[in-house]
Amino acid sequence: MTRRDERVASLHRPPGHGVDCAHGNGAYAPGWRSGCRRWRLACFVVFAQPAFLESINWRDSDNAWAVACAAGGSFRRIAAERLILPRILRRQRLDLLHALSLAAPPSLPCPMIATVHDLGMMAYPQYYPPLRRAYLSWAVQDSTRRARVVIVDSRSVARQVEERLSVPAQKISVIPLGIDPVEVSNRTRRGHVLMLGAGEPRKRADLLAAAYRRATRETGLPELVLAGRSLPQRDETTPHGRIRRRPFLSDADRDELLSTAGLLVSPSLDEGYDLPPHEALARGVPVLLSDIPVHREVFGEDAHYFPAGDAQGLATRLCELYAHGLPPPPPREVVLKWGTRTWRRTAEATAELYRRYYTP
């Protein structure tokens, strides 16, 4: 994408450790980068502990490099973003800055593109600690105001950014997320009900657990697996089922759980895109989603739905889908469609914005 005399930096602020770093905000920078290895990048600046950098192997075959600017704690992260980051960027003599997750410094040596995944901190403030909510709300308004273009994952988020942040529609570009290329597995579906990203309160793992308990009072269901950081690692037995909670998963364990699931469920109240259903459909696993605008926009008729926030409605749908054994897999054409929507497509669309908004 870039000539050797053009220098681009990308900034990423992963949300935490564990399975949540394998999708959503945590997956965006690694996935985006995997699709743009042909391009010469000046640097990646990653706000994370060294263990996170090693776990996703930032230092590999291309010209990018990562800097662990801060390790834990909201105050230290904010201080690093405000004080340390500007010095790093000035040394790089950049032509363009892409803030992948709002880690933009107060002063910039070059034009900026900003990515906004969602506005959960504004739509559902009760699920965010006060300091984090206040900082993220201020940061998203500040970065979108200063950016030349704002990238969002879906039209639903584009409308929110336009309405809540007063960003002009012509300044917003919708670029859907992607996945790493996958091969449809021949592994036997064990049939378990799976939720990924269950550690975030707005994802409503509590609703799914309550619905599962209701459903298993009347009928037997395969076990429910809830995976996500901040979860207690404990199991629970219901009258006709079992709930397993897994706060951390290796990539191999995550892929195994996803590929052999009978059904992936996402009961979230708010999403910018929602990667796990995309990953599941590409592996031939059916999905059951909360009926919210972004799910309808992104997944359309390829998913099953239940009324958002309705535990009884979710329990009913679980019983219906498992009434005759495992839920039927999605049609082959659906699996192929979602399998082709990779990070490379996301990276190429982003490169086009670089070409459009980079001014030598």
How would you characterize the overall build of this protein?
The protein has 360 residues and is α/β, with parallel strands linked by helices. It has two domains: 186 residues, 3-Layer(aba) Sandwich (Rossmann fold), CATH 3.40.50.2000; 147 residues, Glycogen Phosphorylase B (Rossmann fold, 3-Layer(aba) Sandwich). The protein contains 13 helices and 13 strands. The strands form two sheets. A seven-stranded mixed β-sheet has the order 9-10-8-7-11-12-13. Helix 7 crosses helix 11. The N terminus is likely disordered.
What is this structure's SSE topology?
Elements: E1 8-12, H1 24-34, E2 43-46, H2 50-55, H3 74-92, E3 96-99, E4 112-116, H4 120-123, H5 130-146, E5 149-152, H6 155-165, E6 172-174, E7 193-196, H7 205-218, E8 224-227, E9 235-238, E10 241-246, H8 251-259, E11 263-266, H9 275-282, E12 287-290, H10 293-299, E13 304-306, H11 311-321, H12 332-339, H13 343-357
Parallel strand pairs: 1-2, 1-3, 3-4, 4-5, 5-6, 7-8, 7-11, 8-10, 11-12, 12-13
Antiparallel strand pairs: 9-10
Helix pairs in contact: 1-13, 7-11, 9-12
Short summary:
With 360 residues, the protein is of the alpha/beta class. The chain is built from 13 helices and 13 strands. Strand 1, helix 1 and strand 2 form a beta-alpha-beta unit.
